[in-house]
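User: Can you predict the 3D structure for this chain?
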Amino acid sequence: MGTTHAPRVLIADSDSRLRQLLFNALLAVDVFSDCVGTVPDAMAKLSEETYAVVVLDIVLPGGNPEEVVARIAELPRAERPVVLVMAVNALSARSLDVEIVQIVLRKPIAVRQTVELIHSCVQGASTRSASAEDNGDHATS
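Assistant: Here is the predicted structure, written as structure tokens:
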């Protein structure tokens, strides 16, 4: 991990059309993302890459999305992404770690507002990263 490139977004959703829609909308605002459709694929991506934001479908197939949240919780605090969970029923996200999940979005999502929110989170991560590099700080947990 610890690569030095523009902050990325992980979109983990079972709906391939929604993944593609978010991918394209984010690309239009110069935010790069990776898309996966299962829990194992999300876990693999989290092991390979550092993300500024993770967009997680609460009903992601192939396991329990709580596994993804638990994997994120294992990351050093400075490397933890902003976690947005998408759910048809917000109550279904209640079991997720509130220290890790910052935002729960209700499906169907408003794509433009969701992209603006993700873009804002990515810009915040980019600013924090640049500030730490300028100050010579090293991320610690």
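Helices lie at 16-28, 39-48, 65-73, 111-134. The CA atoms of residues 20 and 35 lie 8 Å apart.
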